[in-house]
Specification:
By secondary structure, chain A is mainly alpha-helical. Helix content of chain A is 71%, strand content 4%. In chain B, 73% of the residues lie in helices and 1% in strands. Classes of the chains: A mainly alpha (293), B mainly alpha (313).
């Protein structure tokens, strides 16, 4: 029983980070109709920058328990990259999907080397900072409190996104644009501004996700391209463009992976792709298509 | 006419490369031949039919692993046999995969092919006993038309008989694809690309023809995969990884998907540019990302559109 709980917690922890990236992917797809392959690169960027920022902050005498705030601020600060990247993508909004996909693939290639250039090829780690908040002991198992903080942060951001999209003026405009772009434009929505903001928000979700999850692991060069396919699995399962779909999809993928690793490690990703293909074939629009943005 | 002459000149030039004695460039031509074959197939799907596959590397990997498996497990060393078995295997894989994928178009087709590619990748990567896992499978030097060329060292073999064999396969692949594109099937595929609904009205069985294109593309992909792994001597799971599929589409776009020879030009420029850039900086991916972005934004019909008018793919 306790093993199962541990397994589920591991899965949910992974799902929290996955959700943030997938939510960014969904937002951008909803408004710009671009499947952004670079979302995994934003995640990796957040992870590497988070490590550097926490190390710098600790060296500068910031009290260690505040490192979570440093991570979040770093993720948010990377939002400055949003507008220029969106400006680049704007050149191809009215082109075929093939070109849009390839331009984001170009971003993946560039950002991969940017990370390699700045942080090198060796894995980067934060050491044991994440154990600062202590660990929960459960019948011989020790689970870092930090894992719960990440899960709570994921839930809080999910709730915040839900409120933002359904209750705020900005959210209304975003949903209107996702529903009917030209109609929204005709009604006076400044498309350039909305696109820029939505893309930046999507990017920040990814960088914050990467920054939050990294203290418990290590940042490696391959994390970007590996996460993209998982985030992509999430949005296919949940349905392209749906926030609720991103939430449920990331839980399914996260828990499925955790269970597969425990039960039959060979099937770790295989299981995920089998589900993806099954969903695409049986419900091509995903489990929760077109609920919100 | 001018085109035919240029083509003959290009093939002659390719045949002359090993004679110049610069073995290094000759070895660079080998992946070029392999990718040309695979890309001619991929372009039937994208350029001709209008379906963007982000999982074509799946079939390149099928070809590579077939060659490795035949050589190491079955001790079957004949390259002709490898090509035939790889083509048949790819077709067998492509029948169910294609049957499922062609029910969708546009971004959903791309995502489904990507998912199948990654499914195969995780199979190759995780099932160590069958596939060698992350280490991959070694590919033994195959015999060519029954000749083993035992007296040649590895480089001698590759820039000698194997070079001309690859060139020949590449030419045969191009001629076959030329026939396919100009057959009634090719015409139907172009009609589907331009307007699938209209094609359906005039009696083109859209889904069936897309399926044919998918299977043919898979066969070319696998043949390219066989040619690709012999020089490196290794079939590794990264052959099936999604970034490899992305690179295939990159080459296609770089050369120009709307021209029949665009894929070949794309493969050539990609490989030689990669070689040059890698010798200058280890950050070649960044440079290639910039090149890809520039092509996507400013040159959507690829390098071919700079040098010639459109010859339909």
């Amino acid at each position: 029983m306790i093993q199962v709980l541990n397994l589920l917690l591991g899965g949910v922890f992974h799902a929290a980070a996955l959700f943030l990236v997938a939510a960014g992917l969904q937002l951008v797809f909803g408004v710009q109709k671009i499947l952004n392959l670079a979302c995994g690169s934003f995640y990796a960027l957040g992870a590497y920058a988070g490590i550097s920022a926490v190390k710098a902050a600790l060296a500068a005498g910031v009290p260690a328990p505040l490192f979570v705030l440093v991570l979040i601020v770093t993720g948010l600060a990377l939002g400055v990259l949003g507008p220029p990247i969106e400006r680049l993508l704007r050149t191809i909004y009215d082109r075929d999907e093939a070109f849009q996909l390839l331009l984001t693939f170009a971003l993946v290639l560039m950002l991969e080397d940017v990370i390699r250039f700045v942080w090198g090829a060796a894995p980067a780690q934060l050491g044991n900072v994440y154990l600062l908040y202590g660990q929960v002991r459960l019948e011989g198992l020790r689970i870092p409190v930090y894992n719960f903080i990440v899960i709570a942060a994921g839930l809080a951001i999910a709730a915040g996104m839900g409120l933002l999209l359904t209750r705020s003026r900005f959210g209304g405009i975003v949903r209107a644009t996702a529903e009917n772009r030209s109609m929204a434009q005709a009604l006076g929505v400044d498309m350039a501004r909305i696109s820029s903001r939505v893309f930046t928000l999507g990017l920040v979700l990814g960088t914050v996700g990467g920054a939050l999850v990294i203290p418990a692991g290590a940042a490696v060069n391959e994390m970007a391209i590996e996460l993209i396919v998982e985030a992509f699995a999430v949005v296919v399962i949940g349905g392209l463009g749906s926030m609720r779909g991103a939430f449920v999809g990331s839980l399914i993928v996260g828990v499925l992976k955790a269970v597969a690793i425990a039960v039959y490690p060979e099937a770790e990703m295989l299981a995920v792709y089998v589900i993806v293909i099954a969903v695409l074939l049986l419900r091509p629009a995903g489990l929760f298509a077109r609920v919100t943005a | 006419m001018i085109g035919a002459l240029l083509l003959a000149a290009a093939v002659t030039a390719a045949a002359a490369v090993p004679l110049t004695g610069r073995e290094y460039y000759a070895t660079l031509m080998l992946p070029f031949f392999a990718y040309s074959v695979a890309l001619l197939g991929l372009n039937l799907l994208f350029g001709t039919t209008g379906l963007l596959s982000f999982g074509h590397a799946l079939f390149v990997a099928v070809g590579g692993y077939t060659a490795a498996y035949l050589g190491s497990a079955l001790r079957m060393r004949s390259l002709e046999a490898m090509l035939v078995v790889a083509a048949v295997t790819a077709a067998l894989v492509a029948v169910p995969v294609g049957w499922l994928c062609v029910r969708y178009v546009r971004i959903y087709f791309g995502m489904l092919t990507l998912a199948f590619g990654m499914l195969f990748y995780s199979f190759l990567y995780k099932f160590y006993g069958l596939t060698g896992g992350d280490e991959g499978m070694p590919v033994a030097r195959p015999t060519l038309l029954g000749q083993s060329f035992g007296d040649l060292d590895k480089t001698g073999y590759l820039v000698g008989p194997y070079y001309y064999y690859s060139l020949a396969v590449c030419v045969v692949a191009a001629l076959s694809m030329w026939r396919i594109v100009r057959s009634p099937l090719g015409l139907s595929l172009r009609a589907i690309r331009e307007n699938a609904d209209k094609a359906e009205y005039v009696g083109v069985r859209v889904r069936r023809y897309r399926f044919y294109a998918f299977v043919i593309a898979a066969v070319f992909g696998a043949a390219g995969g066989v040619l690709l792994v012999v020089p490196t001597g290794l079939a590794s799971p990264t052959l099936a990884y999604w970034t490899h599929s992305g690179n295939l589409v990159f080459m296609l776009l770089l050369g120009g998907f709307s021209h029949f020879f665009g894929p070949v030009l794309g493969a050539f420029v990609f490989i030689f540019l990669q070689d040059q850039v890698m010798s200058v900086t280890e950050y070649w991916r960044f440079v290639f990302g910039v090149v890809l972005a520039a092509v996507v934004i400013f040159l959507p019909h690829g390098l071919m559109s700079l040098v010639t008018r459109r010859v339909d793919a």
